[in-house]
């Protein structure tokens, strides 16, 4: 085959199309590489900081959990139910005397748990423990606290035992407070980033990334911290802490 024929064969349409395709691929690869380099450069010019905000708040919701308990044999279940009902009546009267509204009281069904004589004696059921839970909820935090602390007035009366299962304190405005404090924490992160940028002779650019950290609700003087967040319900006065992690560009 002559040299001219070989050249004609080389420059056929398929070969030109292949060359064109390779050229387009090369251009696209160049663009991707350029964009990747720009992203890396942007990340290299960013600074990551953590901002925080704290507030002291007062609980505006109190919950008091009360337990009524009695034990019965196998033949006196009716008397046991009567004892629980009598104790519940005394508790209702006590709350009413302290001006607690009926709608603030939630009464759970009575639970029964078998009592046995132990494995050494054949583990036979010899009776039952009856338990009824009562929840009292109020916005009068101090008032309900006093009522719970004086529950001893009901002790020692009747067959069933009335006992305080604990007081819990909550902040009803916490969802709105969370939004406000996240804004404050972001502002704190920006201020910290500005201080770092100025110390290095640079300027602070726009916010490029932000993520919410854990939300902590702890006693006022507590230093407790949890990676999963905390919500203390044991104290009326609380300290709320919000954390934000943010990244800013450096000019």
Report on the structure:
With 251 residues, this protein is an alpha+beta fold. The chain folds into 2 domains: 48-58 and 173-250, 2-Layer Sandwich (Translation Initiation Factor IF3); 61-170, Alpha-Beta Plaits (2-Layer Sandwich), CATH 3.30.70.2970. Helix content is 38%, strand content 36%. The chain is built from 5 helices and 9 strands. It has helices at 3-10, 13-44, 77-97, 141-149, 174-199; strands spanning 46-58, 61-73, 105-107, 111-116, 125-138, 161-170, 204-219, 230-231, 237-250. Strands 2, 3, 4, 5 and 6 form a 5-stranded antiparallel sheet that branches. A 4-stranded mixed sheet has the order 1-9-7-8. Strand 4 and strand 5 form a beta hairpin. The protein is elongated, with a radius of gyration of 36 Å. Residues 2-8 and 10-43 have low confidence and may be disordered.
Helix content: 25-40%
Can you say what the CATH homologous superfamily of the largest domain is? Protein of unknown function (DUF541), domain 2
Gyration radius, in Å: 36 Å
C-alpha termini separation: 65 Å
Q: What is the general shape?
A: elongated
CATH level 3 topology of the largest domain: Alpha-Beta Plaits
| Number of structural units classed as domains | 2
CATH architectural designation of the largest domain? 2-Layer Sandwich
**How much is the average pLDDT?**
83
- Point out poorly predicted stretches: 2-8, 10-43
Q: Classify the secondary structure makeup into a structural class.
A: alpha+beta
Name of the level-1 CATH class of the largest domain:
Alpha Beta
């Amino acid at each position: 085959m002559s040299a001219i024929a070989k050249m004609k064969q080389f420059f056929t349409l398929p070969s030109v199309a292949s060359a064109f395709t390779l050229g387009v691929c090369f251009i696209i690869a160049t663009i991707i590489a350029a964009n990747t380099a720009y992203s890396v450069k942007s990340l290299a010019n960013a600074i990551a900081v953590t901002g925080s905000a704290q507030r002291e708040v007062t609980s505006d919701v109190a919950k008091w959990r009360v337990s009524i308990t009695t034990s019965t044999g196998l033949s006196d279940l009716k008397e046991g139910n009567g004892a629980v009902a009598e104790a519940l009546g005394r508790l209702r009267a006590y709350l009413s005397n302290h001006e607690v509204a009926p709608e603030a009281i939630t009464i759970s069904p009575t639970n029964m748990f078998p009592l046995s004589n132990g494995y050494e004696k054949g583990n036979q059921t010899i009776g039952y423990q009856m338990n009824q839970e009562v929840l009292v909820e109020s916005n009068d935090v101090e008032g309900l606290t006093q009522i719970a602390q004086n529950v001893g007035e009901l002790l020692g009366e009747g067959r069933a035992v009335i006992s305080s299962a604990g007081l819990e304190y909550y902040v009803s405005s916490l969802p709105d407070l969370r939004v406000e404090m996240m804004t404050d924490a972001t502002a704190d992160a920006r201020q910290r980033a500005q201080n770092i940028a100025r110390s290095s002779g640079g300027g602070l650019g726009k916010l490029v990334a932000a993520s919410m950290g854990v939300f902590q609700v702890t006693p006022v003087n507590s230093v407790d911290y949890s990676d999963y967040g905390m919500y203390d319900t044991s104290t009326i006065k609380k300290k709320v802490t919000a954390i934000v992690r943010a990244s800013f560009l450096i000019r």
